Amino acid sequence: MKHVLTLLAVASVFAVSNQALAYDGQNCKEPGNCWENKPGYPEKIAGSKYDPKHDPVELNKQEEAIKAMDARNAKRIANAKSSGNFVFDVK
After folding, report:
1. How far apart (Å, rounded) are the C-alpha atoms in residues 25 and 9?
2. Which of 23, 81, 25, 13 is nearest to 73 (CA)?
């Protein structure tokens, strides 16, 4: 009797797990392309409430900071090559 109940329990677990694996909640257009927009999400993002509206001035600040960082690093490397030891604060 124990074997029958065990087999019945195992069979029911497999049946439930098989149903759970059968649907993942996505409708894929092709393998690997399973993105679905939520209802109400616009087809065109520009001008909608989902548009990030990046400020060009803020983006330019980041670009300038990266260029300044590269220049400082170049000075540090040049100083290390000429003197033989690395100094972080090179003017």
Report:
1. 27
2. 81
What is the distance, to the nearest Å, from the Cα of residue 23 to the centroid of all Cα atoms in its chain?
Answer: 24
| Residue 30 φ then ψ, to 5° | -155, 165
Nearest Cα to Cα of residue 88 among 66, 65, 72:
72
Report the C-alpha gap between 90 and 79 in whole angstroms: 8
* pTM for the structure as a whole: 0.41
- 13-57 pLDDT, tens digit each: 666 555 445 556 667 878 778 877 778 888 888 888 888 888 889
Contact 90, 79 (CB under 8 A): yes
Which pair of tokens denotes residue 43? Answer: 């087809």
